[in-house]
Amino acid sequence: MNTKFWKQYLPEFKEKTTQFYNGSMSQSEYKSFSGFYGSYAQRGGHANMLRLRMPAGRVTKERMAFTCKMLKEHNISRMHFTTCQTIQLHDLQPESVCRIMEEAIDAGIIVIGGGGDYPRNVMCPPLSGVEENEYFDVMPCAEAAGDYLLRLIPEKKMPRKLKVGFSNSPMNLTHVTYRDLGFAATKEGTFDVYSAGGLGINPRFGVKVADGIEPEMILYYIKAMWLTFLTYGNYESRVKARTRYMQDALGGPELYACAYQENLKEVLDSGEDLRIQPSKQIMSKKRK
Question: Where is the Nitrite/sulphite reductase 4Fe-4S domain (predicted)?
């Protein structure tokens, strides 16, 4: 991981955070800025929260050790696991939130893009790889997707956040059929792909845009989703800016699927190599 690249953003965060706590920046102005860093001022504006990105929800022993170290060093008494499988720390004073950000990057934990209109943490079933009756272990794919989405954060600004998830069994614990982009494992060792779904106000079931894609091809579908969102997402109204609104904006699920397929063809024809290495567990499943 290029720590120098991610650290280049931190001085501005420290500067703006100081301005906010000095009273020279409003909370709304600070919120629109700080989301990029995975941090917001809490209600009342007396402390910050911070999200530690855990790719595919995987809390390794090293990431857990870092989190415990921060809890002790900064006397943090409140934290929780978010619905997107990050670790969220609460009640942080300005000096603490800035220090934790920098030390997190040194520990291989990225906070950039944890809020605001950016790709969020990729979700994965917590027992993937050991779950009874799973189709195959999707963790390697979810982690590869998380790494790729980090590369898109400094690129063009999206209309709103983008949530990607993977499921490993018919239980669909991560609700991938209701994600902005969801990869549902099949018994054949492939993925069915769902796009432009979402819960909340005006929920939409994701549009099935592909059947039985090979795991090594997932990044092509992620880039196609990104391009589709950039092209057809609503930049004018934040209320209608989530991907699920593109279904109606384009005339319904079928026409949305056509628009997505056009962007997918563009990605596939570009010559860019986005293939990932399939895991041994997937290949073993295919041989059965």
Answer: 116-265
Among 86, 106, 126, where does a domain finish?
106
Res 144: pLDDT: 97
What is the b/e burial string over 166-175, where b = at least 16 CB atoms within 10 angstroms of the residue's CB? bbbbeebbbb
Write phi, then psi, for 37 (nearest 5 degrees): -95, 5
CA–CA gap between residue 115 and residue 25 (Å, rounded): 19
For 283, residues 6+ apart whose C-beta sits below 8 A from its C-beta are 189
pLDDT in the model for residue 279 = 61
Three-state SS annotation for 11-54: HHHHHHHHHHHHCCCCHHHHHHHHHHHCEEECCCCCCEEEEECC
**Quick check: 287 pLDDT over 50?**
no
**186 and 231 housed in the same domain:** yes
Q: Is residue 119 part of a domain?
A: no
Q: How many domains does the chain have?
A: 2
191 and 101 housed in the same domain = no
Mean pLDDT of the 272-281 span: 81
Report the alpha-carbon distance of residue 219 to residue 264 in Å, rounded: 11
Residues 162, 277: Cα–Cα separation, whole Å: 24
Q: What is the pLDDT of residue 64?
A: 97
Q: How many CB atoms neighbour CB 78 within 10 A?
A: 12
Residue 15 lies in a domain: yes
Q: How far apart are CA 43 and CA 64, in angstroms?
A: 27
Cβ atoms 183, 210 nearer than 8 A = no
